[in-house]
Amino acid sequence: MSPDVGLISLFFASIFTSNILLSNFLGMCSFISVSKDFTSSNGLGLAVTFVMTITTAINWLVYHYLLIPFGLEYLRYIVFIIVIAAIVQISEMVIERMSTNLYMSLGIFLPLITVNCAILGVALFMQIRNYNFLQSVIFGLGSGLGWWLAIVSLAAIRKKVDKSPVPGPLKGPGITLITIGLMAMAFMGFSGMLNVQ
Amino acid sequence: MNTILAASFLIGGLSAVLAALIVVVDGIVNNYGEVKIDINNGKKELKVNGGASLLTTLSEQGVFIPSACGGRGSCGACKVKVLSDIGPILPTEAPLLEEDEIKQNIRLSCQVKVKSDIAIEIPEELFSAKIFKGVVEKINDLTYDIKEVKIKLIEPNEIEFKAGQYMQLVIPPYEKINEYTQRAYSIASSPSQKDSVEFFIRLVPGGIATTYVHKYLKENDQMELVGPFGEFYMRNTDADMICVAGGSGLAPIKSIVADMFERKITNRNVWLFFGARSLKDLYYVDFFQDMEKKWDRFHFVPALSEPEPQDNWKGETGLITDVLGKYFKEKMDQNTPKEGYLCGSPGMINACIKVMTENGISEDKIYYDKFA
């Protein structure tokens, strides 16, 4: 039974109040590593959004039309990952063809989207929360946009922080983690406005 | 049982569908159509299907660029000058390119892809590099970890090369290695021996090619080789030649020394320093000692860094760099011009370059092929 959640509420909730990164802390590795410059963050954010939306849709179909009928729900982890890996491969080929510069600036992080736990997380949340197909696609898209919003925001903040007088021992990863903590607290300000759990 | 079958079918079927989807997208997205490769300003023009790496594309067309690592982007041997714009330097190329090479648009051919018409410059002699088919005539243990492999050439059945150059052995799939691999080895035989080539191959633990040669290759096996390649050969000057070899690095030096002796280029002083740990690592000693007797300007200095008591060693001891430094100061004529010829591990080569430059040989007079 699908939860009674409006699509618009679900869309905005997955971007802001239930941001996959800043409220669930999924997908932190590439979030921290690629947020050093704005262009790469923007590119990776868009790639994650694309992969998340497509894979959530495909995974919903696979789960409901293949796994449930055969009673193989327990295989969802491996099946979801196979789908994600294939879609990432395809995205990698498309990005290489369409924008060599973006492909190069993303470097190793593009194939690593496969192991971005935010993508698997969204697929599993969709299943645990019993979303219907449309809800799942909107949830995937919203979560992707939420991840993209978080990474470009962090990239923008890091650009400013780089020129700020940060105490020596906190430079680099230290101040980045503090920034992420403050961002998560800021996003907590949205909680209560919408609830999609 | 049914559940196991259903799970297997589901995972297998889904993987097959997704793999097919990848293949279809790859066919569409990576279809760059026919592209032209212009080599050396119109000297050769190739029409090829775009999408693959420049190194692979060229080798499919019979133009062989050296690649000691077989296109993994780790040796930096496959550099070519690209005259057209093929985009910025890739992160995988950057560590292997010098600043002035980047300015001249030198690129690693194993890393750049042929996506549109491209113009390149390569040394003329690479046009003569070929694929050779041969049969293993003899495998001989030189030490506990170095084998001498002699390959008789079948097609073409003769080879022209400069003493000191190398060839790439094509290693077929075996055990868990499921694709063809190429690795570079210096030719140990003399260029006068045209119908076969010999190599000294040291077993590198975990090495794909050396494990194959040491554990699987047998006499009468067929082998493919590509080459010859390399800029490591004797320069025609009157300078004294200071050669330093370590391990299987003796191969090109042996070829050079034998070639000089055969061609009666015996008017220059040649010093050969051969570094090893203990007596069991030394080989071809009789050959060079014999050469010393026949050629009064040839000096052979084997040195052991860790001789064992039973070795009863009376020769030089210590690191080869220390022995080299000592001979520079005590035995060699300080006033004659000198050239360095080095072959061994990258560490040994770097250390010897330091000693040689400290003793008056400028870096542009020190020659080596560094097989990383």
UniProtKB/TrEMBL annotation, chain A:
One of its GO terms (cellular component) is endomembrane system. Its EC number is 7.-.-.-. GO terms for biological process: electron transport chain. The chain crosses the membrane at residues 6-32, 44-68, 74-95, 102-125, 137-157, 177-196. InterPro entries: Ion_transpt_RnfA/RsxA, NqrDE/RnfAE, NqrDE/RnfAE_oxidrdctase. It is a multi-pass membrane protein. It is found in: Cell membrane; Endomembrane system. The keyword Electron transport applies. Keywords: Cell membrane, Electron transport, Membrane, Translocase, Transmembrane, Transmembrane helix, Transport. Belongs to the NqrDE/RnfAE family. The complex is composed of six subunits: RnfA, RnfB, RnfC, RnfD, RnfE and RnfG. HAMAP family: RsxA_RnfA (MF_00459). This is Ion-translocating oxidoreductase complex subunit A. It comes from Petrotoga olearia DSM 13574. The lineage of its organism: Bacteria, Thermotogati, Thermotogota, Thermotogae, Petrotogales.
From TrEMBL, chain B:
InterPro entries: 2Fe-2S_ferredoxin-like_sf (IPR036010), 2Fe-2S_ferredoxin-type (IPR001041), Beta-grasp_dom_sf (IPR012675), Cbr1-like_FAD-bd_dom (IPR008333), FAD-bd_FR_type (IPR017927), Flavoprot_Pyr_Nucl_cyt_Rdtase (IPR001709), FNR_nucleotide-bd (IPR039261), OxRdtase_FAD/NAD-bd (IPR001433). One of its GO terms (molecular function) is iron-sulfur cluster binding. Residues 129-235 form the FAD-binding FR-type domain. It comes from the Bacteria. Residues 33-126 form the 2Fe-2S ferredoxin-type domain. CDD domains: fer2 (cd00207), phenol_2-monooxygenase_like (cd06211). Keywords: FAD, Flavoprotein, Iron, Transport. Pfam families: FAD_binding_6, Fer2, NAD_binding_1. The keyword Transcription does not apply. This is Oxidoreductase. It comes from Petrotoga olearia DSM 13574. The lineage of its organism: Bacteria, Thermotogati, Thermotogota, Thermotogae, Petrotogales.
